[in-house]
C-alpha cells in the first residue's frame, strides 16, 4: 500500500511540474490580419524575399515569385514559379478566394484540381498579416504561424523596411529564427522556360 501511495504521489508531482512548465511558456495571442485588404491593389507579381521552410517548396532554390490575376467571379488565379538548383523552372497554378467580408485580409488558396475544391482540406489559409501602405512589402501566414512568407514587388527589398517588418512580425509572436532569405538572381522567370 505504501508503494502505491508513493507512485500516486510521484505521478501527481510529475503532472504538476509538467503543468507549471507548460504555463511558463505562454501561447502567443491569436494571429491578427491587417484590417483591410484592397485585393485589386494586391493583384500582380510578388517576389519571395524570405520564407519559413516547408515541404511544398523544397525544390525552389531561387527566383521564387507569385502572380495573382483576377478571375471571373470573386476568385483569384495564383501562379507560383521558382527555379530549382539545376536551373529548371517550375510552376504551380492554383486559386484563391476571400474568406469573410469584402475587405477581409483572410484568404484561402488551393492548388488541388478544381473538381476537388468542394473538399475543405484542399484549401489552405493565406492571411495577410502585414503590408505597407504602398503595397510594396507584405507578410503572409496562417493562424498557427507555422508558415510565413515575406514578399515584395521587386526582387530586392530595402533593408530598413525589411528589418522594420521583422520587428512587427516578432511582436505578433513569430519565431523569426526559422525565417530564411530567398535568393533572387534578377533573372526573369518566363512561362516559356518552364519544365513540363
Written description of the protein model:
With 196 residues, this protein is of the alpha+beta class. The chain has a single domain (39-178), classed as Beta Barrel (Lipocalin). The protein is 20% helix and 31% strand. The chain has helices spanning 2-24, 39-42, 159-171; strands at residues 44-51, 62-70, 75-83, 89-98, 106-110, 124-131, 137-141, 148-152, 180-181. The protein has an eight-stranded antiparallel β-barrel. β4 and β5 form a beta hairpin. The protein is globular.
Summarize the structure.
GO terms for molecular function: lipid binding. This protein is an alpha+beta fold and 196 residues long.
Q: What is the string of SSEs from the N terminus onward?
A: HHEEEEEEEEHE
Main sheet strand line-up? 1-2-3-4-5-6-7-8
Number of beta-strand segments: 9
N- to C-terminal separation? 72 Å
Mean pLDDT: 83
The fold-level CATH name is Lipocalin
Amino acid at each position: 500500500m505504501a508503494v502505491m501511495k508513493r507512485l500516486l504521489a510521484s505521478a501527481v508531482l510529475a503532472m504538476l511540474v509538467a503543468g507549471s512548465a507548460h504555463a511558463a511558456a505562454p501561447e502567443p495571442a491569436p494571429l491578427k490580419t491587417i484590417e483591410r485588404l484592397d485585393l485589386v491593389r494586391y493583384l500582380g507579381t510578388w517576389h519571395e524575399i524570405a520564407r519559413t521552410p516547408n515541404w511544398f517548396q523544397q525544390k525552389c532554390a531561387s527566383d521564387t515569385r507569385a502572380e495573382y490575376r483576377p478571375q471571373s467571379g470573386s476568385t483569384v488565379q495564383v501562379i507560383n514559379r521558382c527555379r530549382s538548383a539545376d536551373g529548371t523552372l517550375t510552376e504551380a497554378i492554383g486559386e484563391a478566394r476571400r474568406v469573410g467580408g469584402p475587405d477581409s485580409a483572410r484568404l484561402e488558396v488551393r492548388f488541388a484540381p478544381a473538381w476537388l475544391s468542394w473538399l475543405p482540406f484542399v484549401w489552405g489559409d493565406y492571411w495577410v498579416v502585414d503590408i505597407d501602405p504602398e503595397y510594396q512589402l507584405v507578410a503572409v501566414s496562417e493562424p498557427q504561424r507555422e508558415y510565413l512568407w515575406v514578399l515584395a514587388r521587386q526582387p530586392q527589398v530595402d533593408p530598413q523596411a525589411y528589418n522594420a517588418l521583422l520587428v512587427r512580425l516578432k511582436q505578433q509572436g513569430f519565431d523569426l529564427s526559422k525565417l530564411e532569405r530567398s535568393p533572387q538572381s534578377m533573372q526573369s522567370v518566363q512561362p516559356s522556360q518552364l519544365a513540363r
